[in-house]
Design brief:
Keywords: ATP-binding, Nucleotide-binding, Transport. The chain has about 270 residues and is an alpha/beta fold. It has nine helices and ten strands. The chain folds into two domains: about 1-95 and about 185-265, 3-Layer(aba) Sandwich (Rossmann fold), CATH 3.40.50.300; about 110-180, no CATH class. Strand 7, helix 6 (about 195-210) and strand 8 form a beta-alpha-beta unit. It is globular and about 55 Å long. The structure holds adenosine-5'-triphosphate.
């Protein structure tokens, strides 16, 4: 059952001393007669990386869709920065700072790297792309765009077409466009999917870096990455939480080893 009584009403520190910025209690989603998510409690902390893992069909994407309000929960409560967002429309939730990465499809391939970030920077202000803005405003935008590119390590490629970037650097550009919105909570859906080992390392380092000033919640299948950069791991199985804790604790949980990780993974 939903445990709303225990739920935080303001983003104060929890017992571990870190601020809870996003939290869910008793989250449930039924599709017709099928129960996809059941009784999920989740606390996502500022300046931490939190992984949501589990076998195919465990309900990870559905939980993401519930948190971002793309799906309305059948029951349960979601709080963001102290505000109850259970019934809040997705666009407002995004404006409040809960931003989901849409992977490479969010990039404009025929714009340059710099232009992609500039377009993203204009979004929070609700401005359409304006070609005739004053030079001063454009310079300021370029400066902020270059700062973002430096933050993610794309400062050497501002004038490259996004389409010509390697797969891994496209993913990095996509993260940069997400960071342009200055999210308080960043949701990443399988950020390592389809990448080679070198790119995985780069993106993992980038995620750790951006998580210093915001919360990150990510669905990820690469358990090495989860072990390396995630402070907290929640394991889902058939829509329910099987285990939750740091990677070491969770990976030693017998039920998790049997259900998901296999016994060979330390
Ligand atoms: N719109 C929907 N209508 C009916 N069933 C759905 C719908 N969306 C998801 N499901 C079902 O809910 C369950 C959870 O799906 P979900 O996509 O959340 O799992 P997942 O953990 O993200 O899986 P994967 O790792 O394969 O992406 C699955 O059995 C799926 O078939």
């Amino acid at each position: 059952m939903a445990d709303t009584a225990k739920m935080k009403t303001s983003p104060g520190p929890d017992h571990e001393g870190a601020r809870v910025v996003l939290s869910a209690r008793g989250l449930r989603k039924d599709f017709g007669g099928f129960n996809a998510v059941n009784n999920v409690d989740l606390d996502v902390h500022h300046a931490r990386v939190h992984a949501l893992i589990g076998p195919n069909g465990a309900g990870k994407t559905t939980v993401f869709n519930l948190l971002t309000k793309f799906l309305q929960p059948t029951s349960g409560t979601i709080m963001l920065l102290g505000e109850n967002i259970t019934r809040t429309p997705p666009a407002r939730v995004a404006r409040m700072g809960l931003v989901r990465s849409f992977q490479i499809s969010a990039i404009f391939p025929h714009l340059t790297v710099l232009e992609n970030v500039r377009v993203a920077l204009q979004r929070p202000n609700g401005l359409a792309i304006q070609f005739w803005r004053s030079m001063g405003a454009l310079d300021e935008l370029n400066e902020r765009a270059m700062q973002l590119l430096e933050q993610v390590g794309l400062q050497d490629a501002p004038n490259m077409l996004a389409a010509d970037l390697s797969y891994g650097r496209k993913r990095v550009l996509e993260i940069a466009t997400t960071l342009a919105l200055d999210p308080k909570v960043l949701l990443l859906d399988e950020p390592m999917a389809g990448m080679g080992q070198e790119d995985v390392g780069n993106v993992a380092r980038l995620i750790s870096k951006v998580a210093k000033s915001r919360a990150v919640l990510m669905v990820e299948h690469n358990l090495r990455v989860v072990a390396d950069i995630c402070d907290h791991v929640t394991v889902l199985q058939r829509g329910e939480i099987l285990a939750s804790g740091d990677y070491r604790t969770v990976s030693q949980d017998e039920r998790v080893r049997i259900a998901y990780m296999g016994t060979e993974h330390e």
